[in-house]
Amino acid sequence: MAAASLGKRLDGSGVCVVHGDGAAMPFAAGAFSGVVSFTMLHHVPSVTLQDRLLAEARRVLRPGGVFAGFDGVGSFLFRLIHLGDTYTPVDPGTFGRRLEAAGFTEVAVEREWARFRFRASRK
After folding, report:
1. Pick from 76, 88, 81, 15: which is nearest to 47 by CA?
2. pLDDT of residue 54
3. Average pLDDT, integer, range 77-94
4. Closest among 20, 33, 84 to 61, alpha carbons compared
């Protein structure tokens, strides 16, 4: 398991590696000033669970906190890379509205050729 390996490698560094469900994080509301998501949203098995993860990211952010990240844009090649794996591509064209529906403000989504990046704030 990658989380266990990372935890061992970072042991004694002051970094705490937590393995868990991003849609049900074991942290108090407002615990963090930032939450990041790097090329993982498409591994969440449904849009409903992705939206729960967005709401959970907002929950653990303190007011003024930022949620930021990037993910791949759905394509035939991206799908081929994920054969036999969970693959639920995120549509960057609707992602901003989904972030707003989760309660984020100051939402920005920028699409590039093969990926998109995003940034949103919690008021």
Report:
1. 88
2. 98
3. 91
4. 33
